[in-house]
Amino acid sequence: MQIIESYLTKNPYWKKNQNPTDSRYKNYQKNGPKGMMLHSVGCSQPSAQAFVKGWNDPGYTDACVHGFIDANSGDVYRTMPSNYRAPHAGGDATNTHIGVEMCEPDCIKYKKNSASFTVSNRVKAQQMVKRTYESAVEFFALECLEWGFDPMKPGVIISHNEGHDMGIASNHADPEHLWKGVGLDYTMDGFRRDVRDKMLELTTVAGFADVPVGVWYAEDLEWAKDAGITKGIASDAFGPMLECSRAQIVTMLWRLWGSA
Q1: N or C: which end of the chain has fewer CB within 10 A?
Q2: C-alpha distances in angstroms, 193 versus 138, 143, 186, 203, 225?
Q3: pLDDT one-digit tens code per residue, 99-116
């Protein structure tokens, strides 16, 4: 995943943030976001650049978001800084949440005035949706680390659909309808867990929660785990301050000899 800055500098909401006379924009910039909302675009357009081009227009007043995820590449096109207010939710979540849109496959066709669609190539559709899902997980993890969000705390990471159920967003079904429609078992609960796990991966060494990035033995530990010499004391714990027993030392030496 690459993050590509493609700011909507011609969009009217960019100007509102550049010179925030409206208290909603002032407050958002002063207080910062409190969470993130996951959207999908609701049409069969996989190209993030197509949306960037269409929305980067002085006359486009329908909405604005902080980013689009391209379904072809998985790249994230950042369209507004996260501390800018972008009307994406159709409700109060606009004043509190970062909004990110996942682009959708070009092999689906929506039924008129409906969130239902047909799929002409299920394998291709699933590949595209998986690609945007995985990039969304990584991007949300990075933003959560940046802003100190706990993805498992209620109301921090929500979908547009969940926002509607909470009374803070307009009546949209995304992105759950997309996942279900292409036959994937993704859920928002699973998404939040995946974001949490990605944050752990990004901030710890070899997946161990008790080994911080930058510690002096980090590179050696990464090598030892990859080589199968040590697995830690649990799936997510290394126990760096614990003493080794003779049995553990013999085991690691035997594994080292076997890896030579």
Answers
A1: C
A2: 12, 15, 11, 16, 24
A3: 999 999 999 999 998 999
Closest CA to 163 of 177, 151, 173: 173
In 3D space, the residue among 96, 89, 123, 92 whose CA is nearest the CA of residue 29 turns out to be 96
Extract long-range pairs of 124-127: CB within 8 Å, 24+ residues apart: 125/182, 126/182, 126/183, 126/184
Sign of CA dihedral 23, 60, 160, 201: negative
Largest CA distance in the chain: 72
Rounded CA-CA distance 149/160 in Å is 18
Q: Is beta strand 97-102 parallel, antiparallel or unpaired with respect to 35-40? A: parallel
pLDDT at 176: 98
Alpha helix positions (H), 35-121: 48-55
